[in-house]
Amino acid sequence: MGNSGSIQPPDTNDILIQSFNLDADADYCSLPICYPGKQAMFHTPRNFSSHLSNFIPYEEGKKLIENINNILLDTAFPSKQCNPCFLLCMVSSVLFVFMFTGNTIASVGEEGGLGVGISIPLMMLSMFFPYFIYFGLFLYKKSARKSQLLAFVNEWNEEKSNGIFLSLGGGGNVRGVAVGSETGGNYEHFYMATWDPKSLLVRGYLHVFVNYQDRANWCQRNGVPFVAPVPIHQQTTDHQIAQQVLAPPAGFQAVAPPAGFQVPEGYALVPSQFQVPAGFALVPESQDMPPNYDQANKM
Q1: What is the pLDDT of residues 167-192, one digit of tens each?
Q2: Cα(69)–Cα(81) distance, rounded to whole angstroms?
Q3: From CA 224, how far away is CA 227, in angstroms rounded?
Q4: Are the CB atoms for 7 and 184 separated by under 8 Å?
């Protein structure tokens, strides 16, 4: 339980009760550390469903999502093509080439062929050196994101030990091949989703699972009322519940009172249609007032 790297929960008692969608869109102009900008993140909902609140209080869930978003921001690396970091590498590479070319030409007259033989390898090395830094930083951020996210999820799962656990996953279709699933997946599928800013191919998720048996045992040990987890596709939202309560059944018709029915003293029937009180009349908005209206008011 709590292994966020599994494709599907191995225990049939594990029930998915909530999935938070990853917003993988990121700013184009972003630089690691100094200006990361907006990066892949989970949006905090304004409130939790009544069913999810039985397992994770809203404030706790809000803090949980904020911590994950902080890790995603701290370990961010530009995901756009020709991003500022890559452009800086290109500019640095060109500058190094011009610099060593000038030094090589100057050394020809002083040291002859020996200076040229030394300068050319250094020039080639310096030309690719910015790209070594770029890809080195990319690999470091990738490794740091994976280790920090999985460490946080595993630590949260072990700390709770109440039958509730988190899992990072994803699912979609890449080049006609299905990867992961909307109800499972592993971290690799989640990481793939971070590189799809519009979530056209792969979507990332933060799953909330409940192990039925572990939750029941924990509630029994701690004297907490047990609420059976309901799979996410079988849950009824609060809005649907309100509609079911307020809306009358299909084919419902108001029953008319029987002939001769008398309203008890102190009660009154609400008319089904609006009735004009005696002594009054409705005047259409488009109709003008009668000619003697002003004279009647003066009297």
Answers
A1: 999 999 988 899 999 998 999 999 99
A2: 23
A3: 9
A4: yes
